[in-house]
Write the structure tokens for this entry.
Amino acid sequence: MVRRNDFTLARHDRFRSSPRRRAIRLHDDEECRFARDFSSKPSASAAFITALQGGIVGRSGVSLTDSDKQRALEAEYRALEGAAVGQPVLWTGKDVTGKVVAAAPYQVGSQNCRQYTHTLTVDGKDTVARGAACRNDDGSWSPL
């Protein structure tokens, strides 16, 4: 039996692409609604967000408000933790929108890792940041 927080790829099919996949959307009003697998999943804790060390959004060169940074990092965590391969995690902030898409998981030593992209749209102009992160034993993700 797999515990809820285990990241056992052989036992989880949530990383596989599905013809019925839907985007996960993080709304501007702080209310979150998630597709299928995420309906009962709690919000990412501050510790998990902090462990991302600013995520790849922090290296994008786009200036964000603190609340927009929080939304962006929450989206990165959601994409890394449970989005299917290629399934976008969308978020909307003040004058900015974002989309995080994680690739297939892979292993580095004993850690499970994922590459991902974060596309930020400001005034109709896209900025794409790329990176990778590995999952720690406590469930947090550390960027590579």
User: Anything to note?
Assistant: Confidence is low (pLDDT under 50) at residues 1-22, 27-42. The CA atoms of residues 2 and 57 lie 32 Å apart.
